[in-house]
Amino acid sequence: MTTVSIDANINAKWSQGHSSYSPGSPEELAIIAIDLLVKELGTEAARSFITQVFTKYPETYKGIEQTARN
Question: Which domain of life is it from (predicted)?
């Protein structure tokens, strides 16, 4: 199985505060991104944006490694 690791330092600022993040995996990066989208756009607009991204992939897509085996 392919493992993606991330080496990043993210500093996010907004009028009410700031946060620093150091994601190490795609899952951690996604959690950070979703959290920031909700802060920026609100829940429904963030959900709509994420839904648009998912439309690029077939519903049965299983990831790079799994797809390559089929």
Answer: Bacteria
